[in-house]
């Protein structure tokens, strides 16, 4: 089993404040395939960004994460229970959940072990949904600057697991019947540069860069270059294309 590394303890409050919120349409797409709404498990729940939506639909929502700080900063609802646990080995009963979700987190898991555990936990006809997002889009000029920052400035500081996310979880172990032709969904926000600055500081690569270069803030340098183009106080539409991989456990 992969070593447990908590990468988000130092950024848990920033993560909650600056990470974009998933659109309702994403969950509506997932709900088309569920048979029951008794219990759902959100793996790598972080601060409960997905769990808060699931709580509107399911009687019982359990969010698990290895980061105690993330859980301490998580969204609170009367039907959400948070547990500090890794996703690959849990103490839940066999075939307990109607839905398992993994939002922007699966690349940190031991994916072979997690696939087996998810298969154990899901009811027959239960649904598993992996989803996440990669680089956002604003316009051609800004997008080019962000890509350069992503690949050239902080590129060497990304964990190797990032490649799994960039590939949209296409090649992960998946012992479920995959739903084809899932509708694409965009996550759209209106941000100024302050919000963009905060969001970029939630990237693990930026945090790793800062640990190695504590006197240099690469995001601040990027903001100086972006300001004349973006506008110092202007809010712009930022689009995150969301990918979604859905599977059903069959008998």
From TrEMBL:
Pfam families found in the cross-reference section: Methyltransf_11
Start and end residues of each Methyltransferase type domain: 41-129
UniProt keyword Coiled coil, yes or no: no
Keywords: Methyltransferase, Transferase
UniProt name for this protein: Methyltransferase type 11 domain-containing protein
Molecular functions per Gene Ontology: S-adenosylmethionine-dependent methyltransferase activity
GO biological process, one term: methylation
Similarity field: Belongs to the methyltransferase superfamily.
Organism: Flammeovirga pacifica
Tagged with keyword Methyltransferase: yes
